[in-house]
Here is the input.
Amino acid sequence: MTGTLVLAGTPIGDVADAPPRLATELAQADVVAAEDTRRLRRLAQALGVRPAGRVVSYFEGNESARTPELVEALAAGARVLLVTDAGMPSVSDPGYRLVAAAVEHGITVTAVPGPSAVLTALALSGLPVDRFCFEGFLPRKAGERLGRLREVRDERRTLVYFEAPHRLDDTLAAMAEVFGTDRRAAVCRELTKTYEEVRRGSLKDLADWATEGVRGEITVVVEGAAAPGPHELAPAELARRVAVREEAGEHRKEAIAAVAAEAGLPKREVFDAVVAAKSQRS
Here is the structure.
């Protein structure tokens, strides 16, 4: 018989949120694969349990190399428990490779549900929760970050992101540039911890606030794009209107700003339409 891979959610802040089954699985697993073994031991101590099986590290740096070893243990009948520092394994954390490999080898995969920063932030945001997209972490480089945001500029579902505190101001500023300054959002900081804070407002207001510096674990929730209006202008029409103004003597920058104001759109969207039109002509 093959073994079982157990993905276990861990607290995102308050250790009292740990699912009761987590202690049982820690005590019974043949192998415990942990993102940080020191954090695991502190968690186990807080839960009043000692892992009976072998404890090994399983993090981004050794995930590829460690996966075959864990699959071999599973194939031999071991019960392998996978935990990360906070939340559910595989969700912006190590785990996907191991799950995929286990599935490929016909090994049973199950889970111990636990706290989720994604769902907690979404519920607290005050934004629509009926449909949403989890986008994980944005790229660190400014150009790549803008490109990723432009991919979902017209996404109508609520968007959820993770972000590092030292990049939050740049990320919110980029979101304001791409999504529009008035798009509603919420920054959820230190969820379930002593200094939990949920800051709600427009992307511009939140970007201004973040310049003062923010600390802690961050989840950002952003309102989806509004449904297109019945008279929304196509990019070609936006470019044509800019061209008309330029022919009348306006500088391109002023023409773009005027057309954007008329259409109720971000200047960047009109600018992109002008660039696209120019590329098609060349």
Observations:
- Strands lie at 4-8, 31-34, 54-57, 79-83, 108-112, 132-137, 158-163, 184-189, 197-202, 218-222.
